[in-house]
Amino acid sequence: MRDGAMPGPLLVVEGLRKDFPLRRRGLGSVLGRRRFVHAVNGVSFAIGAEETFAIVGESGSGKSTTGRMIARLIEPTAGRIMFDGADWLALHGRALRQARRQVQMMFQNPFNSLDPRWSVERIVAEPLVAHRIVPPRQMRDRVVELLHAVGLASQHLQRYPHQFSGGQRQRIGLARALALQPRLLVADEPVSALDVSVQAQVLTLLREIRRRHRLSMVFISHDLSVVRYISDRVGIMYLGELVEIGPTAEVFRAPRHPYTAALLASAPRPEPGRRTSRLALKGEIPSPTNLPQGCPFHPRCPVAEARCTTEKPALVAGAPGRSAACHYPERAPGLIARGAPAQPRA
C-alpha cells in the first residue's frame, strides 16, 4: 500500500440476487412459465476492515439468504462478491476450501447447528482437523484456548450440546467459528433465541471478540436495540432489497426511508408510562413471487405518490455515508412523530 493510501473495503457486494424456483405445478408450468421466489433482488454494500455492518428487516426480507451467499453456503443467481480484492464467487475446489478459512458463520439456533452426538472438544476441533492447521498433539491445547476465549473452561471439553444452556451453546458455536482465525464473521440472528439477559452477555462477548481479533462482521438481526448496540453501520432490508444504508446512530436519529421510520416507530420504548406515536403501515408485505412495479414499498408507504407506483427509486447517496432508495427521503423523519399505532415489528 502506498504511503498515505487508505485501505479498501474488505468485502464488496454488488447486485447480489437469489431466485428460488417454485416446485409446485400449475397453469404457469403448463404454459412453460416458471415462477420464482425473488429472495434477494440486487443488493449492494461494502464493509471495511474491523467494521460491523448490520442487516435489519422483517422475517422473509432476504437478510439471512444474503448472509449465506456471502459465506458461500448457497450460490447466488447473479451478482458479484469481492473479498479483500479477489473475486469470491470465482473460487472453487481447493482454492475455495482454503479461502473459507477467512469467512466463518455463526448460526441462529446453536442447538441445531451443533452435532448432538459430538463432544465440545470434537465440535470446536472439527475445522482445525478439516484444514489440517494444528498438529494432533497440540489440538486439545488449541481447543481449550478457544473455549477460554469465549468464556468456557477445559472441564467442558467432554460434555455434549444438550448439557449446556442456550447462551453457552452459542459460545461453543462462536469458538468453532474463531478456530480458523477468520477475517469476516457472518452472524445470522446469533442472539434471537436467547433470553434478554443472556443476549447482553453474548453481545458484549461479540464486541470484545471483534476488538481482540480485529474482525469484520456482518450482523443479521430483526431487533433494532441489538443492532444499535453492536453495529457501526446498518442496512435496512425490505422485500429482498436494501432500502437504506448509513451509520447506525444517524439512521436511528433521522431515517431517510419510510420503511426505516416504520421500524423505528414500532420499536418498544423504555418508558412504560410515556405515550408515543406509532406509524401505521397499510396492507401486507407483497409476495416475493410477484414483486410490485415501481418502488417495492409503495403499496404500504404512507407518503407514496403516483411516481412511486411506476418508477423504482435507486439506492442514491445523500449525506456523507448515507444512501436511501426513496423518491422523497426528506419526508421520512417526520413520519415517526405523526404516526399512529404500528403494525410491523422489526
Offer a few descriptive terms:
four-stranded antiparallel sheet; eight-stranded mixed sheet; 12 strands; disordered C terminus; 346 residues
Structure overview:
The protein is α/β, with parallel strands linked by helices and 346 residues long. The protein has 13 helices and 12 strands. It has helices at residues 27-30, 63-70, 93-99, 110-113, 120-131, 136-149, 166-178, 196-213, 224-230, 248-253, 258-266, 306-310, 332-338, and strands at residues 11-21, 36-47, 52-56, 78-83, 86-87, 103-106, 184-188, 216-221, 233-238, 241-247, 316-317, 323-324. The strands form 2 sheets. It has an 8-stranded mixed beta sheet, with helices on both faces. Strands 2-1-4-5 form a 4-stranded antiparallel beta sheet, covered by helices on one side. Helix 6 (136-149) packs across helix 7 (166-178). The chain starts with 10 loop residues before the first strand and ends in an 8-residue tail after the last helix. The relative contact order is 0.14.
